Here is the input.
Amino acid sequence: MQDKCPNCGGPLVTKTIKKQFATGSIDYPISQTCPKCNWSKDLTGASDIVSKPVEMPLVAKKEEVKIPPVPPKAVPPKAQPVSGPSSDINKIIIVALAILVLGGLAWAFFLYPGAPTKQVESPTPTATATVTQTTVQATSTPVVAEVTPTGKSIPVFLDSDRGFIRNKEITIKPGDEIVWRNTGTDTITLVSSDGLFDAQLLANDKEFRYTFLKSSGTYNFYLKENQNLNGTIVIES
Here is the structure.
């Protein structure tokens, strides 16, 4: 083993492993390393073993199979027209028929003009004028006068026992506001018989306001707890 690095001359560090024997143990060096230049040497002898290259098995080359060419199909020769006595007879028959047809046409048009043809007179179309009368009716839509709030509020006092107190029937002007107030101790429900608004639940000292934007009319109201407790609002134009 070397004590100094062959590369830089620095001291070497030897790495050992301890092996046990029957009577004791021994430190066996396995490598040397230079901490200065990182030079190292394997002392086990494993680096001296050269591995042999593994020979790959040869792959058998596939033989190409040649397919013999297919011979072209033989084309039968075209049949030649047969000339003989039968073909001459056919020609004679065709010529004779042609002569008969031409003779019939000549006799029909030149030798015998035929009966006079009668001409049919087509009727002359008569133009008929159709007059469609459209009646347009004018529909008049009644014009409803716009009603604006007057800013006037009229109170109506309610009680579950006495109903509409003091003013059971009230006459107002278009645009006036009615204020229903529950002066009783029990909760009541105010209902419009004409469906002007949804049923209103009024606890003690609670009120409901509604502005009558109608030009005229009579409207009835009652308490849901007792329909005999009712009142009327009359709108005068």
Q: What stands out?
A: The helical segments are 85-111. The two ends are 132 Å apart (CA to CA). The longest strand covers residues 226-235. Residues 39 and 232 are 118 Å apart (CA to CA).
